[in-house]
Structures are given as structure tokens and as C-alpha cells.
Design goal:
single chain; alpha+beta; 3-stranded mixed beta sheet; 9 strands; about 45% helix; elongated
């Protein structure tokens, strides 16, 4: 098999020099395309990682409030509205750990270590899950807040959306 490859290469080299130039040019183009694909795919991975990690508590709250405001304002009779959301906790991240348990007679020792991987900025722990904060309470102030049916529609919308009890939702008429 090795001999066949050597014979093929020697025939190409011994033959017309245009064939050799074409083969070398095709090989170089292939190598350049491989390097370019690595460069472009590497940048998109880094951007996705930083976008996931850079989501702050305040940004999350503001985004929830804006989405809820847009949704509630589309309910018939609500009119102009303002929304405020309170959250129970901050983000919670769960990292992979390596647990080592040693039992010596009557005593047991447990050693937990984070599982690390090499990243561009050094070693980082392996993230398994990330829990976003849960909604604790919602206040909606709107022009239709004094209407009982509008109030009930808003409360039903908010409680079903965030899975919170009705006593955690307040709806009031906006000051005019």
C-alpha cells in the first residue's frame, strides 16, 4: 500500500508541473478554509458563553417587568400600566463536584472538589444547572385598575404566568 502511494506521488511530481501546482494550490486552499472555520466557530462559542454568564439580577428583573407590562397592557380595559416585580433570591448555580469518601473504622471523611475544565481565561468549574430567581410578588398599577373584571383578568394572568398565589399580586388604579 505504501509503495502504491509513493508511486502515485512520484508520477504526479515527475509529470506536468501544472498538475503539481494545481494540486498544491488545492491543498493550500483546503488548509486555509479549515483554519478559517476554526476561527469563526471559536468566536461564536466564546460569545455564547459570555452572554449566558453576564445575565445579572437587575437585567433579569427589568426584562421580566417589560414583558409583563407589554402583556398586561394588551388586556382589554387595562389602558396605561406600570409593573413592578420582586424576586425571592438571586441566581443559583450548581457546579459539578467530585466526591471522595473514606471510611476508617468508626469515622467517615468526605472530600468534595469542583470538577474543572480548561478555558481561555484559565480553569473554570463545570456548570451543571443554573436556576433563575423565582417571582415573589407583582404589583400592577393601571388606568383600569378600579374595574373589578379588569382586576380579575390581570390577577389571573399574573398568577398563571408566574405560578404564585393571588395574595402575591396587587392591582391598583393609576393616579391621574
Amino acid at each position: 500500500m505504501v509503495n502504491k502511494i509513493k508511486e502515485s506521488v512520484s508520477k504526479i511530481i515527475a509529470g506536468d508541473s501544472k498538475k503539481v501546482k494545481i494540486i498544491v494550490a488545492i491543498g493550500l486552499i483546503g488548509i486555509v478554509l479549515i483554519f478559517m472555520s476554526d476561527i469563526f466557530s471559536g468566536n461564536s462559542k466564546n460569545k455564547n458563553e459570555t452572554q449566558q454568564c453576564s445575565y445579572s439580577y437587575d437585567e433579569y428583573t427589568i426584562e421580566l417587568e417589560n414583558k409583563l407590562k407589554k402583556l398586561v397592557s394588551n388586556i382589554d380595559g387595562v389602558g396605561e400600566c406600570e409593573v413592578m416585580i420582586t424576586l425571592q433570591n438571586t441566581n443559583e448555580s450548581v457546579y459539578a463536584t467530585d466526591v471522595e469518601v473514606k471510611a476508617d473504622g468508626d469515622s467517615t471523611n468526605q472530600k468534595d472538589e469542583y470538577v474543572l475544565y480548561d478555558s481561555d481565561s484559565g480553569e473554570s468549574p463545570v456548570l451543571i444547572k443554573e436556576y433563575l430567581p423565582q417571582v415573589q410578588g407583582v404589583t400592577v398599577v393601571c388606568t383600569g385598575g378600579d374595574n373589578v373584571s379588569v382586576k380579575e383578568k390581570i390577577i389571573q394572568c399574573v398568577t398563571s404566568l408566574f405560578n404564585i398565589p393571588t395574595n402575591r399580586v396587587s392591582v391598583s388604579k393609576i393616579k391621574t
